[in-house]
Design goal:
Layout (H helix, E strand, L loop, with lengths): L27 E4 L2 E4 L3 E2 L3 E5 L1 E3 L2 E3 L6 E3 L4
Length: 72
């Protein structure tokens, strides 16, 4: 019997940017004894759900609410 040929390939190269998880110091700030939230809460979902800041817009990942910034 003839042996089956084995093709060896190189390691695949990932395309695109690498995903980075958001750092906690970008979401909250301590001012003395108070904790200040830096992101705006979602008006539909209520407190506890914050809008993501994208280029030119704010977006809620839970309900899909979007606010566009006014262009000057």
């Amino acid at each position: 019997m003839a042996e089956k040929k084995i093709r060896r390939r190189g390691k695949r190269v990932r395309k695109g940017r690498k995903h980075e998880s958001i750092k906690i110091h970008k979401l909250f700030k301590l001012e003395g004894e108070k904790l200040v939230r830096l992101r705006k809460p979602c008006p539909r979902c209520g407190p506890g759900v914050y809008l993501a800041e994208h280029k030119g817009r704010l977006y809620c990942g839970r309900c899909g609410y979007t606010e566009f910034e006014k262009s000057k």
